[in-house]
């Protein structure tokens, strides 16, 4: 039996952060409003972990995730999950790891359906910050990196 789609939100410094679960895994998150039913236990746990991350008491997430995107996006998201808290990589670093062009990796990062939990904010361009699809764009990316103590990399 497949669990129905459910949603939940948690307040963050950047506004309400919505999450959606289906089939026992988080399948989407972000600051865009989502549709779905009442929150499930998984999303209540996820909300607690996201709140703890923003409170500075949690550095990683222990949640079942399912990226329902093209193969490259899935592979890039796997690489993103391996970047430790407070560290960054470049699109070029991931491109070498995956054997794909840096531009394709950047586009795949932009399609990450579960930002923050899958930390695409930890990926920078070779010459600057790169983009970020959250409200506030690059300013939010910088704030997340500062939150993780990676701001020294930006100076």
Automatic annotation (TrEMBL):
GO terms for molecular function: methylated-DNA-[protein]-cysteine S-methyltransferase activity. GO terms for biological process: DNA repair; methylation. It catalyses: a 6-O-methyl-2'-deoxyguanosine in DNA + L-cysteinyl-[protein] = S-methyl-L-cysteinyl-[protein] + a 2'-deoxyguanosine in DNA; a 4-O-methyl-thymidine in DNA + L-cysteinyl-[protein] = a thymidine in DNA + S-methyl-L-cysteinyl-[protein]. SUPFAM superfamilies: Methylated DNA-protein cysteine methyltransferase domain (SSF53155), Methylated DNA-protein cysteine methyltransferase, C-terminal domain (SSF46767). Residues 73-150 form the Methylated-DNA-[protein]-cysteine S-methyltransferase DNA binding domain. Keywords: DNA damage, DNA repair, Methyltransferase, Transferase. CDD domains: ATase (cd06445). Its EC number is 2.1.1.63. InterPro entries: MethylDNA_cys_MeTrfase_AS, MethylDNA_cys_MeTrfase_DNA-bd, MethylDNA_cys_MeTrfase_DNAb, MGMT_N_sf, WH-like_DNA-bd_sf. Pfam families: DNA_binding_1. Belongs to the MGMT family. PANTHER family: METHYLATED-DNA--PROTEIN-CYSTEINE METHYLTRANSFERASE (PTHR10815). This is methylated-DNA--[protein]-cysteine S-methyltransferase.
């Amino acid at each position: 039996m497949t669990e129905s789609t459910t949603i939940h939100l948690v307040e963050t410094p950047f506004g309400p952060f919505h999450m959606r679960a289906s089939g026992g895994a988080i399948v989407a998150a972000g600051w865009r409003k989502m549709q779905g039913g009442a929150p499930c236990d998984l999303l209540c746990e996820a909300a607690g972990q996201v709140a703890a991350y923003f409170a500075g008491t949690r550095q990683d997430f222990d949640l079942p995730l399912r990226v329902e995107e093209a193969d490259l996006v899935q592979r890039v998201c796997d690489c993103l999950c391996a970047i430790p808290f407070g560290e960054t990589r470049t699109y070029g670093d991931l491109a070498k790891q995956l054997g794909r062009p840096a531009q394709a990796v950047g586009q795949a990062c932009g399609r990450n359906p579960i930002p923050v939990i899958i930390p695409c904010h930890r990926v920078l361009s070779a010459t600057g910050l790169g983009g970020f699809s959250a409200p506030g764009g690059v300013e939010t990316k910088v704030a997340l990196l500062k939150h993780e103590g990676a701001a020294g990399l930006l100076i």
